[in-house]
UniProtKB/TrEMBL annotation:
The keyword NAD does not apply. It holds the Pfam family DUF3339. Keywords: Membrane, Signal, Transmembrane, Transmembrane helix. PANTHER family: OS05G0103400 PROTEIN, TRANSMEMBRANE PROTEIN. InterPro entries: DUF3339. This is Transmembrane protein. It comes from the Eukaryota. Residues 1-22 form the signal peptide. The keyword Ion transport does not apply. The chain crosses the membrane at residues 40-62.
Amino acid sequence: MSDWGPVFVAVVLFVLLSPGLLFQVPGRSRSVEFGNFHTSGASILIHTLLYFALICIFLLAVKVHMYFG
């Protein structure tokens, strides 16, 4: 049996935290913009830090595990 928890968490967080897809921090005219499909260097940095922090929490602290098969 394989542990698919880390793979699932990483893919879901990557999709949800893609800058400009659902939200963008910081936005071009405001601090948070929703669904604008634009990105900037600062927003890439912020979303990368958010991704790293959340994946560390889910994989190291919460220890998410999913087994299929």
